[in-house]
Design brief:
Layout: H1 3-18, E1 29-35, E2 49-51, E3 73-74, E4 77-78, H2 79-87, E5 92-95, E6 117-119, E7 125-127, H3 133-143, E8 146-151, H4 158-169, H5 175-182, E9 193-196, H6 209-222, E10 237-240, H7 248-262, E11 272-279, H8 294-304, H9 306-321, E12 328-336, H10 355-370, E13 375-381, E14 391-394, E15 397-400, H11 402-410, E16 417-418, E17 421-423, E18 427-430, E19 433-436, E20 438-444, E21 450-456, E22 463-470, E23 476-483, E24 500-509, E25 512-517, E26 521-528
Parallel strand pairs: 1-22, 2-5, 2-13, 5-8, 8-9, 9-10, 10-11, 11-12, 12-13
Antiparallel strand pairs: 1-17, 3-4, 6-7, 14-15, 16-20, 18-19, 20-21, 21-26, 22-25, 23-24, 23-26, 24-25
Helix pairs in contact: 4-5, 4-6, 7-9, 8-10, 10-11
Bound molecules: alpha-L-arabinofuranose.
Length: 529
């Protein structure tokens, strides 16, 4: 199918999913129509990326316990965490921040003598720098993920960043690569993504678009990746700081960067524009992460669906300057940001992770998938113990969150091709909030298998779905569903399986599949032909 026709299909799918709001009587069937011969953009596996900042117990205790710890580890990195992350196929990890990256000096985190500094952004605690460049790259190696390094454009210099990249990537016998070898790694590292600054409009230095652009051009020019294997293939992608919302200051920022890029000269380039968007409703974050009811459930989900408008808004600006969609929109910080858990250090951003977060994660991943032609990288904030985490740890204990389960269930969508799904989502109403009752995506993986991700947003009513498939003779469809007794059900160290998956299968009815979706659930099934 040609691109324009496909675009119409996708738009139709979104229209049906999000705009048509004909009331649906509870238990009425919702029909999903899928033509398997129609495929769209690739759902880049990198939209399932993670973010690990030196913040609270995200790195220290979350990843790093040190080689002398009683907690089982490999070269200081927790074995339980590595095994859990391998199971969700983490494609890339953004590090070392966040605001932390805006004042990170990499030399303090290499070699036998680490320098103790402070972490003024996040609780003012001591930063031991024991987890530095080599430990991060070892961690990535252990979990099988690619590196997304965010360089310091705030308090650092282009020279410092350029030397870091030379240290990391050169195969030539320079003083820096000799130092890298002396520190235990003679082979050059691969760096997949280079973040040039972080929130430079705010914690990254409060820069104007023009000032940032002057820095961006310099960093883009001089911070080079020398790895011989990345010169023609697997080239490092450079991500510029982009917007942090939808207001005028952000649209002006996107305009400025994209316009400069369109008029660029040979000496600088970028491959991505960052977008940060937290589900917070209002600042400072005040919603409770546990101990809430349906009102807060519906408010948060309404707020999270704004992600789609935000992507549409900034994509439209990008389309003006880059109609071929060469520049990716990199949603490299997203997720729910709630009030800190009572008794925790407010600078550590500790929150619980409930079934609501699982639904929120699925809705956002679906939005990214529907924008697969532009959104080609995303990083949920943050991987462990911070904000909307995959994993929570306490000393030797570890628990997998509801969000973790969604990432695991969605792993088959990595690098699959979008198959448009046509449906009337119906509505779910609570108080003055009305939301689409159902959301769905489909993807065809490289082996040709069809995968469906379907979310029932309604916390009270099950939904019967009827799936009409064209272009495939379905024999069976099985998978997993994730739900729990309450919208604020959480997994704890003592009760780790309150929110967990169970098997589901669809019934074949002629050429259709019939599936019952439990209230407030996320379901992923694959279709066998
Ligand atoms: O993820 C927490 C913080 O949120 C990051 O450090 C910063 O980039 C953003 O404001």
């Amino acid at each position: 199918m040609g691109q324009p026709a496909l675009l119409v299909q996708c738009l139709l799918a979104i229209h049906f999913a999000l705009i048509v709001t004909a009331p649906v009587v509870a238990q009425e069937k919702i029909e999903l129509r899928i033509d398997v011969s129609t495929t769209g953009a690739k759902i880049d596996r990198n939209i399932f990326g993670q973010f690990a900042e030196h913040l609270g117990h995200g790195v220290y205790q979350g990843i790093w316990v040190g080689p002398n710890s009683k907690i089982p580890n490999t070269r200081g990195i927790r074995n339980d965490v590595v095994a859990a992350l391998k199971a969700i196929k983490v494609p890339n990890v953004r590090w070392p921040g966040g605001c932390f990256a805006d004042e990170y000096h990499w030399r303090k985190g290499i070699g036998p003598q680490r320098v103790e500094t402070l972490n003024p952004n996040w609780g003012g605690v001591i930063e031991p720098n024991s987890f530095g460049t080599h430990e991060f790259m070892d961690f990535l190696d252990q979990i099988g993920a690619a590196a997304f390094i965010s360089v310091n454009v705030g308090s650092g210099t282009p020279q410092e960043a350029a030397e870091w990249l030379e240290y990391l990537t050169t195969a030539q016998p320079t003083t820096l690569s000799t130092e890298r070898a002396a520190n235990g790694h003679s082979a050059p590292y691969k760096i997949a993504y280079l973040g040039i600054g972080n929130e430079s409009w705010d914690c990254g230095g409060n820069m104007t678009p023009d000032y940032y652009l002057s820095q961006l051009k310099i960093y883009s020019r001089f911070v080079r990746n020398f790895n011989p294997t990345q010169q023609t293939k697997e080239q490092m992608l450079k991500i510029a700081v982009g917007p942090g919302g939808g207001e005028a200051r952000w649209t002006e920022w996107t305009e400025a960067v994209m316009k400069a890029w369109q008029n660029r000269q040979w000496s600088w380039d970028i491959n991505g524009l960052s977008l940060h968007n937290y589900t917070v409703v209002r600042w400072p974050p005040a919603f409770k992460s546990v101990g809430f009811g349906e009102t807060e459930y519906s408010q948060i989900l309404k707020s999270t669906l704004e992600m789609d408008n935000l992507i549409n808004k900034h994509s439209a600006i990008m389309d003006k300057y880059d109609p071929e969609k060469k520049i990716a929109l990199a949603v490299d910080e997203w997720g729910a940001w709630y009030a800190p858990l009572p008794g925790s250090n407010p600078g550590f951003l500790v929150q619980q992770n409930s079934l609501r977060d699982a639904i929120l994660a699925a809705l956002n991943l679906n939005i990214f998938a529907r924008h697969a032609d532009r959104v080609r990288i995303a990083n949920i904030a943050q991987m462990i113990n911070v904000l909307q985490a995959m994993i929570m740890t306490d000393k030797g204990q570890m628990v997998l969150t509801p969000t973790y389960h969604v990432f695991k269930m969605y792993a088959p969508f990595q690098d699959s091709y979008v198959v448009p799904v046509l449906f009337n989502a119906g509505t779910y109403t609570h108080g003055d909030i009305t939301l689409p009752r159902l959301d769905a995506i489909a993807g065809k993986d490289t082996a040709g298998k069809l995968w469906l991700g379907i979310t029932n947003v309604d916390p009270n009513q099950a939904v019967e779905v009827e799936i009409s498939l064209t272009g495939i003779n379905a024999k069976s469809a099985t998978g997993e569903t994730l739900t729990a007794p309450k919208v604020d059900s959480v997994n704890t160290f003592n009760s780790p399986n309150t929110v967990t998956t169970k098997s589901v299968s669809a019934k074949i009815q002629g050429r259709k599949l019939a599936l019952r979706l439990e209230p407030k659930s996320v379901t992923v099934i694959s279709v066998e032909r």
